[in-house]
Write a structure and sequence with these properties.
Shape: globular
Strand order of the largest sheet: 1-3-2
Largest sheet: 3 strands, antiparallel
Radius of gyration: 21 Å
Number of helices: 8
Distance between the termini: 28 Å
Number of strands: 3
Order of helices and strands: HHHHEHHEEHH
Length: 145
């Protein structure tokens, strides 16, 4: 196929996607972009772990860091800011000496909690099965190269 025909065939890709069946068919471009943005945020591994960790109530930054293995200070800070920006987490600073800051789920964050916990539970429950599939895929791919 020539470059001209490929370009002509791709002129209305987004429009063609919207005509396809499935969940994306019901949203316009603006909604689809927003949905992708939010799914990127809440589907991020650190967001899932932070939201799940805050399920038991407000926590200080250092307690969150200690409760989430492997998260760097930078990623914890960035993820908390993104979750705050979207209204899922609130930050409360107390005028004390020494200063104290706590993070907690907002009502919006709480409304997402069961979904996040279900996703984490699904992952844990299927850990062995998923690892088996990954190993089989990797073995098959390595044998073909």
């Amino acid at each position: 196929m020539s470059a001209g025909r490929i370009g002509a065939a791709r002129t209305n890709v987004l429009g063609d996607v919207r005509r396809m069946p499935g969940p994306c068919a019901q949203w316009d471009g603006k909604d689809a972009d927003f949905i992708r943005e939010i799914l990127d945020l809440i589907g991020d591994k650190w967001s899932v772990l932070i939201i799940g960790t805050l399920a038991d109530g407000p926590m200080r930054y250092s307690d969150l860091a200690a409760a989430i293995p492997g998260i760097s200070q930078r990623m914890l800070t960035l993820t908390l800011k993104h979750l705050q920006r979207s209204g899922l987490v609130s930050r409360t600073a107390y005028a004390e000496v020494p200063p104290r800051v706590e993070y907690s789920l907002t009502d919006l964050g709480i409304s997402l909690l069961s979904t996040v916990l279900d996703l984490a539970t699904w992952s844990a429950d299927r850990h062995d099965e998923i690892r088996d599939h990954q190993r089989a895929f990797d073995t098959e791919k390595a044998s073909k190269t």
